[in-house]
Known about the structure:
Elements (H helix, E strand, L loop, with lengths): L12 H7 L4 E5 L4 E4 H17 L7 E5 L4 H12 L3 E4 L6 H11 L3 E4 L4 H7 L8 E4 L4 H6 L17 E7 L7 E6 H14 L7 E4 L6 H5 L2 H7 L2 E4 L5 H10 L4 E4 L1 H8 L13 E4 L6 H9 L4 E3 L11 E2 L2 H6 L6 E2 L4 E5 L12 E6 L11 H7 L6 E9 L5 E6 L4 E3 L2 E3 L1 H8 L5 E11 L3 E10 L7 H11 L8 E4 L13 H13 L2
Parallel strand pairs: 1-10, 3-4, 3-5, 5-6, 9-10, 9-11, 11-12, 12-13, 23-24
Antiparallel strand pairs: 1-2, 7-8, 14-15, 16-17, 17-18, 18-19, 20-21, 22-23
Helix pairs in contact: 1-2, 2-3, 4-5, 7-9
Amino acid sequence: xxxxxxxxxxxxxxxxxxxxxxxVAIIDRARDTRHTYGALDDRAERWARLLIGLxxxxxxxxxxxxxxxxxxxxxxxxxxxxxxxxxxxxxxxxALELSRVVEDAAPIIxxxxxxFRALGEAAMAGLQPAARWIDVDADAPSxxxxxxxxxxxxxxxxxxxxxxxLLYTSGSTGKPKGAMLPHRQVYFNAVATTIGWQLGPAxxxxxxxxxxxxxxxxxxxxxxxxxxxxxxLCDQFEPAAFLDAIVDENVTVTFGVPTxxxxxxxxxxxxxxxxxxxxxxxxxxxxxxxxxxxxxxxxIRFREGYGLTECGPNCFAITDEEAMRRPxxxxxxxxxxxxxxxxxxxxxxxxxxxxxxxxxGPQMFGGYFNDPVRTAEAVDEEGWLHTGDLAVRDxxxxxxxxxxxxxxxxxxxxxxxxxxxxxxxxECPGVAEVVVVGVPDDKWGExxxxxxxxxxxxxxxxxxxxxxxRRRLAGYKVPKSVVVMDDLPRLGSGKPDRKTLMTMxxxxxxxx
Length: 512
């Protein structure tokens, strides 16, 4: 009997398909379909053969512009088998923003849904050479059915350090920043996650985070698929449907950003028994303790996690008992991962002293695509990733994330860099200068506030700025408030004083 050759240790789908072909791997709630490991492996092979037939070779990039669905997962594994890199595109971006990403990634094929085709075509309008659009509903079924299955599939030999996936994160300068996630990162994050969180084939994870986000792929989906577990896909987050899915599908583990978790606690069906749920993890942004308390009061075991696209993203592990005993702590480092806290004068921080969190290990990314300068800024000569996040470590070695060094703020679980927003708003007619800061918000955690200085002799209104922002930026990046200033406070260098502006926001909030 001949056995398949695996292109990389991060692809265990073929192994599970041979050992347990009838086990359900994925449930697609939006389409009410169930897919076994055998069917998923067959779909992945068909995608691999189709890509080869379309001229895709090792090192090429295949993009997606679609929601959470089984074909995108099958396409990932199919691309891996030919050595290609998957590039999930963010359908929340404005066409201009997305065009910069597409230009940087230069995919040769884009697999997308019809609802996003207009956005995709606008973003790809200037791409040379042009990428081929394959509609996952209108085109893919017939193309996949017609692939030649007569000869053995030649599986590419893939370097474990080669990029399996290219995920774009917001950049402080507005320039796209594509994090290259190598096969070793996907594999070691999966192994570490299943060890640290004690996940096995019997676990069922509900996934609603979008697939252009590391949370959609790598918090639970890839770890459980590598382990032989089950993944339940939601195309988008809706509180009532999310809670229904937990009960209907006997979900054992799931994840949400604090904004989503707050929405869950306000749903009419909140508090219903969910006996199958082993634990719920919060990530993507700091979780208010009061929210964690509300979740636990409903009888749900609750943990906080931490990670980032460039590493993990599951960097810590904590038990339910320790999570209750240490509110706000994310726990201990995952297997294989080294950590340091860089404090004053770059020395290692002492116990309970904040320091910048540095990470190193096989779960780390391979750098930023086509950007050695920003890669060198993020990773030092000793291989440490400088996260820009502040943490403390207690006497037992447990970590708590306590803040961010950078100006970045997190709105609804999405990273927002003020420089990117400022670059877009500065093009608004009548605007001479603009500074954006993140301010607290009860629903979204943080939102943007723009301080705008009009051009001399001209005027600009709040509505002007917001309208302009909505045309140029994704919704979560649009500032929720605008303050038009006569002048901006400045540092001695002439740069705007962000700290003073934050103080001004606090004063404005106190008067309301």
